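WARN no homologs supplied; continuing
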Amino acid sequence: MEIIQNGLTTEADSRDRRRTERFTGPFDGFRVDVLETPMSIFDLSLGGCFVNSSHEQEPGVRFKMKIDLPHVGWVTLTAQTLYARSGYGFAVQFVDLDESTHSRLEQGLDHLLDQMM
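OK structure emitted
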């Protein structure tokens, strides 16, 4: 995908935008544990997201989660809590992504970005 900026069209511009773009959501997700717990996901980016939750989550906790992304389906990621907003939820960053998972997440975000344009 190409973006025209200052009269120039470059592929790098679209990649940079996707990396910083946050997609409001909500997206369906699950915390993967002994039982899968449903989650609502907001502000999704290549680096992380915000999980709407009434349950407290301590910073630094790692857990598996699945996100349903348009065009690519369910993506399973490892997330680490950055901070919590009492009564609202918590922010996570995605960690230890293998190449395949990173690529699927990137494809899903590319698809969302294409729909915005």
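The longest helix spans residues 99-116.
OK
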